[in-house]
């Protein structure tokens, strides 16, 4: 009689934190920053953004950054094997109106990225994560109606339905997108974070800003 062991090699972590922000803070973000989301998106005319915001320029943003620090430290320990100091590098608010979408992309010049959900999200516009194009998979695919998709053969993963105040964290290199929104306006705050330093056997790189 034979036994089979299957191992999950080198998985990519994605964390959902329910209620990361109190609803009072969520309401404040919507009230203060939704009016500033006037920068149009190059891929969708029904998507607009604020400029890049820094935690130190507004007390409400500073409160958000403080509330997120423990979650960033815990997620960073999954990536680097150590609880490091973390700082929110930048944040911005996104307004996704009916019919709007966010094209596939990742985030440069950061290590942890996240999405804070500030309003209810229609099922059509839940954040989708996907494999990077041109990866190391087989050139041929087995893809038809009878295939059972799972973590080893799927190209995409739809994140769980969020509630206002929820946070999702992921490595900044991970490709993600938002399909066309079939519901009412969806407001989110995206963010990038960096550690205070990385140490590779005595060769230390520090980050500041």
Structure description:
The protein is α+β, with helices and mostly antiparallel strands and 209 residues long. The chain has a single domain (15-133, 153-198), classed as Sandwich (Jelly Rolls), CATH 2.60.120. It has two helices and 13 strands, in the order E-H-E-E-H-E-E-E-E-E-E-E-E-E-E. Strands 1-9-6-11-4-3-2 form a seven-stranded antiparallel sheet. Strands 5-10-7-8 form a four-stranded antiparallel sheet, with no helix packed on it. The chain is globular and about 65 Å long. It starts with 14 loop residues before the first strand and ends with a strand. The mean pLDDT is 95.
In short:
The protein contains 2 helices and 13 strands, in the order βαββαββββββββββ. The chain is an alpha+beta fold and 209 residues long. A hairpin with a 2-residue loop joins strand 12 (197-200) and strand 13.
Main attributes?
about 210 residues; alpha+beta; Jelly Rolls; 7-stranded antiparallel β-sheet; 4-stranded antiparallel β-sheet; globular
The largest sheet has its strands arranged as 1-9-6-11-4-3-2
- Beta strand count: 13
Evaluate the radius of gyration: 19 Å
**How many domain regions?**
1
User: Helix coverage percent of residues?
Assistant: 10-25%
Helices and strands, in N-to-C order? EHEEHEEEEEEEEEE
Let me know the average pLDDT: 95
The largest sheet, given as strand count, sense and whether it forms a barrel, is:
7 strands, antiparallel
Which second-level CATH architecture applies?
A: Sandwich
Overall body shape: globular
Number of DSSP helical runs:
2
Distance between the termini: 60 Å
**Main CATH class:** Mainly Beta
* Strand coverage percent: 25-35%
CATH-level-4 superfamily name: q2cbj1_9rhob like domain
Structural class: alpha+beta
CATH topology: Jelly Rolls
Residue stretches low in confidence (pLDDT < 50, at least 5 long) are none
């Amino acid at each position: 009689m034979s036994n089979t062991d299957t191992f999950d090699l080198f998985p990519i972590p994605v964390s959902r934190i329910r209620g990361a922000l109190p609803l009072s803070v969520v309401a404040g973000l919507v009230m203060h920053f939704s009016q500033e989301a006037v920068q149009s998106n190059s891929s969708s005319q029904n998507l607009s953004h604020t400029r890049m915001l820094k935690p130190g320029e507004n007390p409400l943003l500073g409160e958000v950054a403080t509330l997120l620090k423990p979650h960033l430290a815990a997620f960073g320990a999954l990536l680097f094997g150590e609880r490091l100091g973390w700082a929110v590098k930048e944040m911005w608010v996104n307004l996704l109106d009916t019919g709007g979408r966010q094209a596939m992309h990742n985030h440069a010049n950061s290590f942890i990225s996240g999405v804070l959900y500030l309003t209810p999200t229609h099922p059509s516009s839940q954040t989708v994560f996907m494999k990077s194009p041109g990866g190391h998979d087989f050139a041929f695919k087995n893809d038809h109606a009878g295939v059972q998709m799972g973590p080893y053969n799927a190209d995409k993963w739809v994140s769980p339905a969020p509630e206002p105040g929820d946070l999702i964290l992921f490595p900044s290199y991970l490709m993600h997108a938002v399909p066309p929104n079939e519901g009412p306006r969806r407001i989110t705050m995206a963010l990038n974070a960096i550690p205070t330093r990385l140490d590779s056997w005595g060769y230390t790189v520090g980050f500041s800003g």
